[in-house]
Please model this.
Amino acid sequence: MTPNRRIAVVIPSYRVRAQILRVIEGIGPEVGWIYVVDDACPEQTGAWVRDQCRDSRVEVITHAHNQGVGGATLTGYRHAIASGADAVVKLDGDGQMDAALILRIAGPLLAGQADYAKGNRFHRLAFTRGMPWLRLAGNALLSFMSKLSSGYWQVTDPTNGFTAIRRELLAELELERIARRYFFESDLLYHLNQLRAVVVDVPMQARYEGEPSSLRPMHMVGPFLRGHLHNTVRRIGYSYLLRGFSVASMELGLGILLLLAGGAFGVWQWITSSASGVPATAGTVMLAALPIIVGVQMLLSWLNFDVAAEPRQPVHALLGDRQSLRDHQRAPETKNAG
Model:
């Protein structure tokens, strides 16, 4: 089956006037719709595309105010929902992403194997050749934080912006609640987990040739840490208290309680022993150590459950059936209104 014209591409554009036409020219016939979103670009990239591009697939949308890469992508998503595409690919306009890989990124979605796919520059060690070591360290830290906050423990390289998503999920997501700026890709993973969407990594080669990047991972650790902590608390509260209270929920709660209690008791006894000069007894040490040991074991058991609970069954078919049912139910109303 040829996936011709089943893909839409969203290109958020800001200061990419010199590269944007080459990016569009590299997009193959497998794509039926191309949405170029000018994010209040001072270079007027959108007007440049309108004047110079003759590709009938291209539609240019212009923001009056800059909304960040996430905001521009979400605008493109809203337009893509009305298209007939099955998969919507996000492609940066600076030329760092190879448009020839669009079909590879969208492939798992078109085959019905996943709901969301993203590039992974760390799949093989050779793929990271040329990537600055500071960027490697920052991405490693951000990857771990993303695993905890999103629940996708097998997903790496969360800030990779080369992504594809099923159109059915775009219609179901609360797009207005997703982060607009650099936290966009990581925050989207959290929201996808709430829909129990299947997310897969697609291996891709990193492309760095010494060009400056506006994203500096080490500088973003603070803002990203706050975002991930917020999403971690929300995910755990929703998944283990509201939606699915289970033995794992009790392990998590008791594990944290025992760990904190044992740690606090141990610190208190250490301060008391230091002030009096009397060494703590073996029994006192065990009273502090045992809750910590049991607490750690419970947290590890919860972590094992959380990793195993990662979504495995794609949900886009179910969401599509639900949308079709809603459209069918509205049809008689429309007919009667006519």
Summary: The radius of gyration is 24 Å. The beta strands are 7-13, 31-38, 58-62, 87-90, 116-120, 163-166, 199-203. The first helix runs from residue 17 to 25. The mean pLDDT is 88.
